[in-house]
Amino acid sequence: MDWNRNQIKQRLLVVCGGVAFFCALQNLPAVALALRWVLGVLSPFLAGGAIAFVLNVPMRAIEAHLPSGKRWKRLRRPLALILTLAAMTGVVTLAVCVVSPGIGGAVRSITSQLPAAIQRMQAQLAELEAWLPQLETLASDLQFDWKALSEKAVSLARDWGGGLVSSGGVLIGGVVSGVSTFVIGLIFSFYVLLQKERLARQGRQVLYALFPESWADKALEVLRLSGRTFSSFLSGQCVEAVILGALFVAAMTVFRMPYALLVGVLIALTALIPVVGAFIGCVVGALLIAVTNPWQAAGFVVLFLVIQQIEGNLIYPHVVGSSVGLPSIWVLAAVTLGGKLMGVAGMLFFIPLCSVLYALFRGFVKARLKDRRVPARKWRDP
């Protein structure tokens, strides 16, 4: 009787799930609107969870080096959190102190060299006019309806002004909403970090209370693997960014290129975004160097392409791949697939996700081979 009751319950669940799925397909706009509303409500807490996860990586290392006596039992966690926030604030402040003077010097250099650049442009235009005298004849033959052009310009300016005002209101509202979400998420992350063992214990209780023990064990195994993988990915990404920035500082110093430290720090910061982040720093660095010497800017682009090839094919797959336990070829595949599907966020998310899936699938394959008693000589290298 118990077996029949369980079987009926499973079939009812399948039928109810199928009906719910069919209703969702029939009302996709309403479902999408509801999901957007739910995500909007939960966004501060989701942001807080992400912040807590990132802060937990250095906080765990700092807490492991604090004293462990009875006096320190209640102080270890708050002290570790304070030291983590102080360390991250110091890193950000150091980066700003390095970048800000360089940007100020670059702006002053651009301002001082702008008149000379305009004169060079005028001289080049004069040479072009001398080589192409037909431009003057062509310009004299052109006839413009200045009244119509002025009316069109006024109409465009009116439309753009109205759009700018409306978009400005939307932008201000978005900034206020983003700041409030970040502040609430930051406060929520502090509570999560200070009580993470208690929250983890409550989560395990919920799993074992709602699901069969075997399912709960498997879910906890996957969650632990995901936590280790994502933490290792963050550490590997930071190490890779520091290595890339140091390479640029050293190479630009050797080739006597200007703004070596500034460009190196910018590239290290933007390289936290996998693969494409360094290109943002390359564009900024090339523009800065081009004001001083366009030929050096071209040389910097060539240098960037060389270092980027070394980093993308040798350093990144080995540093990040070894940190998450993912072979180099699958790291490149994960970055490519994530970028195609979700853009920059996909590049950040797909590497640890693919590492978790790779580890689970590898364990599944090994278990299947063991269950089927396939001899190792049949699948090992010949």
Radius of gyration: 29 Å
Strand content: under 5%
**What is the global morphology?**
globular
Beginning-to-end CA distance, first to last residue: 55 Å
Which residues form runs of ≥5 with pLDDT under 50? Answer: none
Largest sheet: none
Helix count, DSSP H or I runs of 4 or more residues: 11
Number of domains: 2
Count every beta strand, where a strand is a DSSP E run of 2 or more residues.
0
Structure description:
The protein has 382 residues and is mainly alpha-helical. The protein folds into two domains: 146 residues, no CATH class; 162 residues, no CATH class. 88% of the residues lie in helices and 0% in strands. The chain contains eleven helices and no strands. Helix 3 packs across helix 8, helix 7 packs antiparallel against helix 8 and helix 10 packs parallel to helix 11.
